[in-house]
């Protein structure tokens, strides 16, 4: 018998964790002498009150969908991929190389080519940690952390020494050619008569992100490979006994994870900046951890959590613009969400389980 | 490269290795007791901020040090609560602590000092001043030995000497005391310790507490010794380099010293030379920056010796009923 009904497991536990995080965040805002209610109102109006706000919210959401899915897929194989940040950086490199050096006349061709480039580079950056985990037993968390730093160094070197256009002081690549520019939501919605802000960066990658959620769901719950990944995550000995190859599953799960993290670059590098700049990922790889934890590693949960963090990110930017609350408030909220939905999960869960058991006995 | 340059680089190595060493030893206690800690970075950062803030306001660096240790210990207790009491995922808890510190320090710094997430510069008694060891001045005229003693060994702040003294102390505590034996046992086989009637929970909390104190000193040294004040994200990955050093050192105190000195040397060289020219081969600064991580990955891969972590590391202990 389950300790809790399914709805409580899926909705109540994350909701309570989120409430705890929200209450503590409100206390933090109070402590620095600001009004939490006013802050929330400003965040809502800034992030959701206009198509401009929505454009930014959905842009951030797209980033977090990819990094969140990346963490979630690895998590199903009981691998904690903390390296989304580095994998997304390398994905940016893949996008930049594709856009700068391949002849891509139209975005309909450029989008799949760049997405493949991003996924390949992201997956390649997960390959070595995956191999070391599968074959040599080196802890994936430590190696992926190290690879984040190595990725930052590599990108720094490439942008400063090799990819920077001649005569430019800015450590960034050239602008991508016209043919690779992705249509924004404004461009997509205008033909069907919907007015959407022109200045906001949300673009066609958002739709790719939605598709990615669907594909990951199909992969995990409707294919043999997905079953093997989940079986391996539940119990390695049982999976091995059933004839599942642990090396293969570890490698495949990490490669998919790295590829998904890398694909984030289609959104931020190709869709927004239209060139590769230093520190393009801006911590989205780490937010993927919070998103996956909150979304209970389910693609649709990830989508909802990504939307929430997209809102927080854009709302936080508005707060930083209009009040004296710095952007780092979002980092605090993100930390609290990770803490309560991830590390202190049992603290939230144990009293609830007791409560439900008591009810059941009474009935 | 002349003799004086070498002395200067080594001198800077010692100063840069100190926070690494303190954080590395902090991680050593925690991980030897079976509690993985990737939150060293966050604890250092929190300590760096609060020590600088309190030192600035009170004018006393010692009060700053205490406050820094306090901040770090609070985060360490959160980690203990999550990973020992509530048997949560220790890695996720560490990640949360890193972000908590990264966000809160800037938030509070901005609210207290309005200088864009930094503290005002520290001066006078609000900083750890270098200590001149006896006879350093008298020996300064002596060739070769004079600079080595006067510049390299003498002239650091008290926390540097403390960090180096902690290496033999840690070795002694871990390998020559009953507490140390139990601490190591709880990281290898907590059930055995439990059977012997010793509290696993209390031992692990003690280890996490020591870890917090040492990270606090490391952070305080960063903000009040190495530099004069707190700036946003000033730990700059040092907590992770310390973690790398810990793995590189195979979770042993003396090896930690050598690993931290090596990584400190890399930082010192990277700080001094943008691009190092080794007889025609130019090594870009980025290589020096990432070398600790690359070395650790190679080491973890088991191609050069094998790094075997404490067996019960990362596993919450569940007492059987």
UniProtKB/TrEMBL annotation, chain A:
The chain crosses the membrane at residues 12-33, 53-75, 87-103, 109-128, 140-160, 199-220, 249-270, 302-323, 329-348. GO terms for cellular component: plasma membrane. GO terms for molecular function: transmembrane transporter activity. This is ABC transporter permease. It is found in: Cell membrane. InterPro entries: ABC_transp_permease. Keywords: Cell membrane, Membrane, Transmembrane, Transmembrane helix. It is a multi-pass membrane protein. Its main location: membrane.
From TrEMBL, chain B:
GO terms for cellular component: plasma membrane. CDD domains: TM_PBP1_transp_TpRbsC_like (cd06580). It is a multi-pass membrane protein. InterPro entries: ABC_transp_permease. GO terms for molecular function: transmembrane transporter activity. The keyword Transport does not apply. The chain crosses the membrane at residues 6-28, 40-57, 91-113, 153-174, 205-224, 230-249, 256-275, 281-304. Pfam families: BPD_transp_2. Keywords: Cell membrane, Membrane, Transmembrane, Transmembrane helix. It is found in: Cell membrane. PANTHER family: GUANOSINE ABC TRANSPORTER PERMEASE PROTEIN NUPQ (PTHR43370:SF1), SUGAR ABC TRANSPORTER INTEGRAL MEMBRANE PROTEIN-RELATED (PTHR43370). This is ABC transporter permease. The lineage of its organism: Bacteria, Pseudomonadati, Pseudomonadota, Alphaproteobacteria, Rhodobacterales.
